[in-house]
Amino acid sequence: GLRIHEYLYFQVLSPGDIRYIFTATPAKDFGGVFNTRYDQIHLVPADPPEACGELNNGVFIQDQIALVERGGCSFLSKTRVIQEHGGRAVIIADNAYDNDSFYIEMIQDSTKRTADIPALFLLGRDGYMIRRSLEQHGLPWAVISIPVNVTSIPTYEMMQPPWTFW
């Protein structure tokens, strides 16, 4: 049936300037679910960012989570590329860097292919700010916890990105 977006949350632990809790939405009709909580796992920006083929940094994605940029191929194709490189999940950020409020529904691409790892959609502004921070610090990845249960965090302790409206 029709449903409102479900949200999944993750927290950047490092670098410290983006130590916030981010909101993402799971793919609608493909990909796996998080049945494990990762307290400290690397969020590795894919190279090239769109992840539509072979990755230059695929070795760093093995057993980690990839940060991918929307565009160039289907959401499912990106998810499969990350899965083939041994990634545990993929977070696909919108390529509209000014998007700070509109979640896009990621759906199957009609190829009848499947993917087993979780695929999440991230607002463009959030993806941009994470990548920008990593570039400024010269870091190859961020350290995150995912998923985060926000219902157990008091509202006044919620570290939300200052550029995002919740």
Automatic annotation (TrEMBL):
InterPro entries: PA_dom_sf, PA_domain, PRADC1-like_PA. It is found in: Secreted. The keyword Glycoprotein applies. It holds the Pfam family PA. Residues 43-127 form the PA domain. It comes from the Eukaryota. Its main location: secreted. SUPFAM superfamilies: PA domain. GO terms for cellular component: extracellular region. The keyword Signal applies. Keywords: Glycoprotein, Secreted, Signal. Plays a role in the modulation of physical activity and adiposity. This is Protease-associated domain-containing protein 1. It comes from Eurystomus gularis.
